[in-house]
Amino acid sequence: MMKNIIYVLMAICLSACAKEKSKTSGVQKEGVIVSKTDTALVAVTPKLSKEETLEKLSREIIQSLKAKDYEQFSAFIHPVKGVRFSMYAYVRPEKDKHFSREDFVRYISTRTKFTWGEKDGSGDILVLPLKDYLETWVFKRDFTQSEYHLNTFKGTGNSLNNLKEIYPEADFTENYIAGSQKYSDMDWKALRLVFEEYEGKYYLIAIVNDQWTV
Hints:
Layout: H1 2-24, E1 26-29, E2 32-36, E3 41-44, H2 50-66, H3 70-74, E4 83-86, E5 97-99, H4 101-107, E6 113-118, E7 125-129, H5 130-138, E8 147-150, H6 163-166, E9 171-177, E10 189-198, E11 201-211
Parallel strand pairs: 4-11
Antiparallel strand pairs: 1-2, 2-3, 4-5, 6-7, 8-9, 9-10, 10-11
């Protein structure tokens, strides 16, 4: 009789331990570890590498430009340094238009016009509101369909490129669209996004457009 009682107690104990283990054990599903608790499922996403983080940021910024979601776009702007826009590969810190995050938010929905620079070839001055500049110059092609490169220049033409001299401590992504046979590949376009780290996160400090110039 005593043996039977002991066996019953042991069975109850083992059953309780198994239930407790099943409540707290984690299961891995499609690369994401899901930790089970009594009250909730907590997803633990593996930490991204620097290269993965920059690619993710680049694609999210481009998508926000395509969607014309400038509220989302503003969140990527460096909170201290702001963002500078360069019409061509040659960055001119003293002339290229610069906005703090606050100024970007202030002007994006207004018709206030800014002088962005001179058009290559004609020398005409480009004067546009911020929103129009983003939609007609920065996102002049669908860069969601571009080739992605990190800290590498795919698009090269006859214009000077001083990005690395102006931003020596920064990382940049190049989003490149090849030219067409119709124009002997000279109608290529590149959109470069320049990032710096601040308080453990990467933020956008510059957008540089590039293309073939005469």
